[in-house]
Structure to design on (296 residues):
């Protein structure tokens, strides 16, 4: 499902041939998918001072899931509050509407939409022919699509020309600027050393699922190897993110690890956001990254 998002987050500028009020109004909105509304559940034990106040409030909240009010994700959809990010390879879609705000009939309306990049200018209009007339309180609607193939600054140029009842030809434009970002930025470092630069402790991932279910705990297994010549006293620290949460106790003592010895640790995580998730696991001052896909 697609909904009309707000265009106010894009850098916008009006350009017209004369400083005057136009008979037509131009609106450009980016089409994006809505997201699930997220809650911040607040709970307490029955013997605490609020009693069951928080529970009753969550049950009365229309955005929570009935019977599972403590879930982070709700049942409602949230419209985009800003223009958002556009990534390389994504299809950029916009809704263009020209509305006749006046009380007179306007003729020969021509609406053009061009996308200006650093290297080219593309015509995105579905039709290049003019509309013969537009009555008061009527509008011309169009939806444009374009697969973004360049990074950097993009400018959507929307131009409208028309003729008034007196035969006067008028013209105005609007510019919408947005940035196209890289979806992934891979950096590689090379070390000139005889042995791998693991440091004192090496952390590797033995088991992780490729795909996990949203809001359901899943298991991973990490392996810690002591690469130093002394016994290490290990402490496991867990750091939650907005999308990935640890199910366990942070700051747990793992005990002593002898030189060249290894230790396998089963851990449990939970994902609250769909899509590709990249996670850093930290132990003492050393860590590593792993990725998985969370699905509903």
């Amino acid at each position: 499902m697609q909904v009309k998002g707000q265009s106010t987050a894009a850098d916008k500028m009006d350009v017209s041939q004369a400083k005057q009020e136009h008979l037509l109004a131009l609106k450009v909105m980016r089409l994006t998918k809505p997201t699930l509304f997220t809650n911040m559940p607040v709970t307490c034990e029955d013997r605490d001072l609020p009693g069951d106040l928080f529970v009753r409030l969550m049950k009365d909240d229309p955005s929570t899931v009935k019977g599972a009010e403590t879930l982070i994700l709700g049942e409602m959809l949230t419209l985009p509050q800003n223009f958002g990010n556009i990534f390389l390879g994504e299809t950029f879609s916009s809704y263009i509407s020209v509305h006749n705000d006046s009380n007179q009939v306007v003729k020969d309306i021509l609406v053009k939409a061009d996308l200006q990049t650093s290297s080219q200018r593309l015509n995105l209009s579905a039709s290049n022919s003019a509309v013969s007339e537009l009555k008061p309180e009527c509008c011309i609607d169009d939806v444009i699509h374009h697969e973004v193939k360049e990074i950097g600054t993009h400018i959507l140029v929307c131009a409208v020309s028309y003729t008034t009842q007196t035969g006067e030809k008028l013209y105005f434009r609007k510019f919408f600027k947005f940035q196209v970002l890289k979806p992934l930025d891979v950096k590689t470092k090379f070390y000139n050393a005889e042995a791998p630069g693991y440091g004192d402790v090496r952390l590797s991932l033995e088991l992780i699922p490729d795909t996990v279910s949203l809001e359901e705990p899943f298991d991973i297994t990490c392996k810690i190897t002591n690469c130093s010549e002394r016994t290490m006293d290990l402490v496991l620290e867990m750091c939650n993110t907005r999308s990935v949460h640890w199910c366990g106790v942070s700051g747990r003592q793992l005990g002593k690890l002898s030189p060249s010895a290894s230790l396998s640790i089963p851990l449990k995580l939970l994902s609250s956001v769909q899509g590709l998730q990249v996670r850093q696991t930290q132990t003492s001052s050393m860590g590593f990254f792993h990725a998985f896909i969370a699905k509903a």
User: Anything to note?
Assistant: The CA atoms of residues 112 and 159 lie 5 Å apart.
